[in-house]
Design brief:
This protein is of the alpha+beta class. It contains three helices and nine strands. It has two domains: about 55 residues; about 100 residues, PH-domain like (Roll), CATH 2.30.29.30. About 40% of the residues lie in helices and about 35% in strands. Strand 3 and strand 4 form a beta hairpin.
């Protein structure tokens, strides 16, 4: 099976290199220009994979806990705020989801949403057609949007936590 580093490099670098190769070939009318563009994609993908793995090591919990809470799931994510997709780390615990940006963004801050505030978690399309989005609908009507790997797993795990939280709600009689 292909490892995570190689997969990141290929997924990011392949389309970028193909686009740049075609772009350079059209401008310079040369196969060499196409190959230079393709090579730039390979370099871009490799550098992005290095950055991603560095951030993973920096942000991933070493002990499986966040502020003393057991971590159910965690991973790299982008959170959209005012038109910017901020890169960082998304963590799910039994009581909340937490996003922390990695510090290389124009807008750096954390987002901490209690499971009690979440109505639904749904898969969404980034840019209207890329199937890598996670939408989290809040009771306030606000919707938080993320780009994640394994979005179906995120949706399932968040939905499970919402269900567990609803089971723990007191009844009208206070029981």
């Amino acid at each position: 099976m292909i490892n995570r580093f190689t997969k990141t490099a290929l997924i990011a670098g392949g389309p970028f290199g193909l686009f740049m190769g075609l772009f350079f070939a059209l401008i310079y009318q040369s196969i060499i220009a196409f190959l230079v563009g393709l090579a730039s994609g390979i370099v871009f993908g490799f550098l992005l994979a290095i950055f991603t793995e560095t951030q993973r090591k920096k942000m991933q919990s070493k002990d499986g806990r966040l502020d003393g809470e057991l971590i159910i799931f965690q991973g790299p994510a982008n959170h959209f705020l005012n038109g910017e997709g901020r890169g960082g780390w998304l963590t799910l615990t039994p009581s909340r989801i937490v996003f922390k940006s990695h510090g290389m963004n124009f807008q750096n801050h954390s987002l901490d949403v209690g499971i009690k505030e979440i109505v639904d978690a749904v898969p969404i399309q980034t840019l209207g057609f890329i199937p890598n989005g996670l939408g989290v609908v809040l009771k306030s009507g606000k919707k938080e949007s993320f780009v994640v790997n394994t979005r179906k797993k995120w949706v399932r795990l968040i939905s499970e936590q919402i269900g567990v939280e609803q089971l723990n709600l007191p009844t009208a009689s206070g029981e």
